[in-house]
Amino acid sequence: MYPRFLSSQRQWLVVAFLAFVASFTDLHAETLRGVVIGLADGDTMTLLDSAKVQYKIRLSGIDAPEKRQPFGNRSKENLSALAFGQQVVIEWGKTDRYGRIIGKVLVNGRDAGLEQIRCGLAWHYKAYMREQSATDRALYSAAEVEARSAKRGLWGEQGPMPPWEFRRR
To answer: Is 65 helix (H, G, I), strand (E, B) or coil?
Structure first.
């Protein structure tokens, strides 16, 4: 009986430890700092770090209209006004199939992706929301609901097409 108790106690400790570690995954993201030197669109930028190395950055948690879509250029212009030439901090944990760093972009402490959503110039990219912290998921979702109800940006249009659908066409 004693070994069985020890076994179940160990199992409980392992589960508790894994749950504890999982709750802090956001704290273990990599950090990159640099200046934004280019923008491809409303959710992709080029960063130059202090060693003069360039990185392609894809803003996590959002999907902005493609350049050929309505509001595509406005989305890019808005992100440019917020971040171009600015020193930024990127909190990231992975790259995508194109080699871009997927990360949360902070400009003077402001979340650039969240700002894009608030302005009605990007969707909360719910297909990847599990990669966000619970706090960011809630903030991004609430910002999209608010932008929709206020008819900001692309939400002022009748039935805007999400970029993930536009890319499939």
So the answer is: coil
User: Which residues have C-beta within 8 Å of that of residue 157, sequence separation ≥ 6?
Assistant: 70, 71
Looking at domain 29-156, which of 3.90.980.10, 2.40.50.90, 2.40.110.10, 1.10.10.10 is its CATH number? 2.40.50.90
Who has greater pLDDT, 118 or 7? 118
The answer for 99, left when phi > 0, alpha when psi is -120 to 50, beta otherwise, is: left
pLDDT in tens, 100-144: 999 999 999 999 999 999 999 999 999 999 999 999 999 999 999
4 is catalytic: no
70: Cα within 13 Å, side-chain hemisphere:
11
Catalytic residue among 91, 100, 115, 144: 100
Length of the chain as a residue count: 169
The model carries a pTM of 0.83
Active site residue 100: yes
